[in-house]
From TrEMBL:
Keywords: Iron, Metal-binding
GO terms, biological process: protein maturation
Cited NCBIfam families: hypD
Entry annotated with the keyword Phosphoprotein: no
Protein name: Hydrogenase formation protein HypD
Family as reported in the entry's similarity comment: Belongs to the HypD family.
Length: 345
């Protein structure tokens, strides 16, 4: 890639953890001009799940009448004093599943137990979570509920671009989320935030093309949205998926680990379906918690620090002995950097 004629650093944020993985795996950073900085955003759903939620799920798992069902990455996330992995080893009934519809089947197969699905993720997992709740309502499955902490992307992007301590020149939009909410949902980036954005896939050529387009628009001072992932991302997205989300959930403020409470960046279960809201059903108290002293996950999620800036990275904190949540998930920036980093400590 040719050097560009601009006399300052250009900061481009990739939001999606899969984009971060592609960038690190392919060595894209090594071919960029020295003044083009790629900033990793909060695109890992496990990583942005607040500590208080993790502790709430752990406490819920200790109840003998409860079966916890969850995506695999959540098992290893360290809580304040324990983890779901440790609680499972101690005999609590915690099951890894691939879809909340599996949790609904477990509820039907175990009528004497309360089945709780840990509903984390972004707009990509929201439709099937909504579908599970809707089906449970139709079937009158009273022993199924969702402990919901779903997040949405437009609100957090607005928050990041408007942050005084984080100067961003362009956004590489989250590809998976874009397939659900569509190209239209990101038009606010050039129109309101006045910076360019690109929707792209995850192959190296997709990511390189997106970065090139962003650099070109930044250099020309053109604020536009380009969709180069049209093979999967339609202008209006997936209307059926959006409809089931609107039916079951409503927009709310949400607590993002390291970022705080962000307006219109989450989804909560509507009152019509509140009997399937585990937080209300079990009176779960989600308290604000903080990370281990010295862990930089909160700053890394904000884009202010890189994993290599953390003194724990690759030493005390590794995928087998994670201190911070960013090392746990396959979409977490620390785990990705550790996997593809040239230097092993």
């Amino acid at each position: 890639m040719k050097a560009i004629s601009i006399d300052r650093d250009i900061r481009i944020m990739e939001i999606c953890g899969t984009h971060t993985s592609s960038i690190m795996k392919s060595g894209i950073k090594g071919v960029l001009p020295s003044n083009v900085k790629l900033v990793t955003g909060p695109g890992c759903p496990v990583c942005v799940t607040p500590q208080g939620y993790i502790d709430g799920a752990i406490e819920l798992s200790k109840r003998t009448e409860v079966i916890i069902t969850t995506f695999g990455d959540m098992i290893n996330v360290p809580g304040t004093y324990s983890s779901l992995k440790l609680q499972k080893a101690l005999g609590n009934d915690i099951r890894v599943i691939y879809s909340p519809l599996q949790a609904l089947k477990i509820a039907l197969d175990n009528p004497s137990k309360e089945i709780v699905f840990l509903g984390i993720g972004f707009e990509t997992t929201a439709p099937v979570t909504a579908l599970a709740i809707h089906k449970a309502s139709i079937q009158k499955t009273k022993n199924f509920s969702v402990f919901c902490t779903l997040k949405t992307m437009p609100g957090i992007i607005k928050h990041l671009v408007n942050s005084e301590d984080l100067r961003l020149d362009g956004i590489l939009c989250p590809g998976h989320v874009s397939t659900i909410i569509g190209e239209r949902s990101f038009k606010f980036i050039p129109e309101q935030l006045k910076i360019p954005a690109v929707i792209a896939g995850f192959e190296e050529k997709d990511v390189v093309s997106a970065i090139f387009l962003l650099i070109d628009m930044i250099t020309k001072k053109e604020n536009k949205l380009e969709n180069i992932y049209k093979r999967f991302v339609q202008y209006d997205g997936n209307n059926k998926a959006k409809e089931i989300i609107r039916t079951v959930f409503k927009s709310c403020s949400a607590n993002w680990r390291g970022l705080g409470n962000i307006e219109n960046s989450g989804l909560k279960i509507r009152n019509e379906y509140e009997s399937f809201d585990a937080e209300k059903k079990f009176n779960i108290k989600v308290e604000e918690k903080y990370l281990s002293k010295g862990c930089l996950c909160e700053s890394i999620l904000r884009g202010n620090k890189t994993p290599e800036d953390c003194s724990f990275f690759g030493k005390q904190c590794t995928p087998s002995t994670p201190i911070g949540v960013c090392m746990v998930s396959r979409e977490g920036s620390c785990g990705i950097h550790y996997k593809y980093h040239e230097f092993r400590l």
